[in-house]
Specification:
Helices cover about 65% and strands about 0% of the residues. It is an all-alpha fold and about 150 residues long. The protein has one domain. It is elongated, with a radius of gyration of 22 Å. The mean pLDDT is about 90.
Length: about 150
């Protein structure tokens, strides 16, 4: 991802170990535990044991996704702080008091806007109540974020 220039069409970050190994392995383990549980019910072989495996594999799958989601939430908080600091220096004086009106989703999306287009895009975001997706689609000079978790 870092080698290709980012744009609206190419800014989603895929984490191959998570997306293509860890999450699928835990999902497959959960599905397999359900299959074993159902088979134990059919064949009358220790369903309590296999049900406990379903619960354990579900807990593991949930833990994997909670770890991922929590790291993304922390990163969004850092992005929010970074963008407020950047806006405090880039935005014109008249627009700075309106920074707190921006939502977390808007701040996260605005990080991709270059310093030159940021003031106009912030004004438009506040006036038109742009969504995160609308903000990203409006950016002309993409500012890459290659550090996304």
């Amino acid at each position: 991802m870092a080698d290709a220039p980012q744009s609206y069409a190419h800014h989603t970050r895929w984490d191959p170990p998570f997306h293509f190994f860890i999450a699928p392995v835990f999902l497959i383990a959960f599905i397999a535990s359900i299959v074993h549980f159902v088979m134990s019910l059919i064949h009358h072989h220790h369903p309590v044991f296999f049900f406990s495996l379903v619960i354990l594999s579900l807990a593991a799958l949930m833990a994997v996704f909670k770890i991922r989601i929590n790291s993304l939430k922390v990163q969004d908080r850092v992005i929010r702080l970074e963008e407020r600091l950047r806006m405090a220096t880039v935005l014109p004086e008249a627009l700075r008091p309106r920074i707190p009106e921006l939502t977390e989703r808007q701040l996260v999306a605005l990080r991709f806007a270059s310093d030159g287009e940021l003031p106009a895009l912030v004004q438009r975001t506040l006036t038109e109540k742009l969504s995160q997706d609308d903000i990203k689609k409006s950016i002309q000079n993409w500012r890459a974020d290659n550090w996304r978790v």
